[in-house]
Design brief:
82 residues, four-stranded parallel sheet, 4 strands
């Protein structure tokens, strides 16, 4: 399974990309600090067992050990919308 990380994942564009990648069979990690995004934008994604949501400010480094899907699937792409 391929894995993508989407910063700003709880925003309008990011949340739609989360849904799209999940529908294509990807594991998805969304990172958002909820400054402008909303958890409610991820209602459908949160139902998927292949989705992980991390509340985090991307101006602070994120360690790979804090992203469980990296160990399982590697990282095949980063989409930056934060």
């Amino acid at each position: 399974m391929k894995h993508v990380l989407i910063t700003g994942g709880a925003g309008f564009v990011g949340s739609h990309l989360c849904d799209l990648f999940l529908s294509k069979g990807y594991a998805v990690t969304a990172v958002d600090n909820y400054l402008t995004g909303r958890r409610s934008n991820l209602t459908r994604a949160l139902e998927s067992p292949h989705f992980d949501l991390i509340e985090h400010d991307v101006s602070v480094p994120l360690r790979s050990k804090d992203v469980p899907y990296i160990a399982q699937h590697g990282l095949h792409g980063v989409l930056h919308f934060a």
